[in-house]
Amino acid sequence: TGPVNGGVFRQVGVTAQKTMRLLPASGKKATQKVVVGDQDGIITCFGIKKGEAVPVFKTLPGQKISRLELGGALNTPQEKIFVATGSEVRGFTKRGKQFLSFETNLTESIKAMHISGADLFLCAGYIYNHYCDCKDQHYYLSGDKINDVLCLPVDKVNCITPVLACQDRVLRVLQGSDLLYEAEVPGPPTVLALNNGNGGDSGEEIVYGTSDGKLGLIQITGSKPIPKWEIGNEKKRGGILCIDSFDILGDGVKELLVGRDDGMLEIYKFESADDPGLQYDHALSESIASIQGGCVGKDGYDEILASTYSGWLTGLTTEPVHREGGSGEELKLSQEMQSKISSLRNELEHLQMKVLQEREKYQQSSQSSTAVSSVPAFSVNDKFTLNKDDASYSLILEVQTAIDNVLVQSDVPIDLLDVDKNSAVVSFSSCDAEPNSNFLLATYRCQANTTRLELKIRSIEGQYGILQAYVTPRIQPKTCQVYQYQIKPLSLHQRTHSIDQDRPMNTLTLKGQFSFAEIHAWVVFCLPEVPEKTPAGESITFYFQNTFLGTQLESTYRKGEGCFKSDNISTISILKDVLSKEATKRKINLSISYDVNEESVSHTLKLIHPKLEYQQLLAKKVHLIDALRELQVHEGNVDFLLPKYRSILEEADQLLEEYKRQPAHLERLYGMITDLFIDKFKFKGTNVKTKVPLLLETLDGCDQDGLIAFFEAA
Question: Which stretches make up the BBS7 helical hairpin domain (predicted)?
Answer without folding.
Answer: 598-711
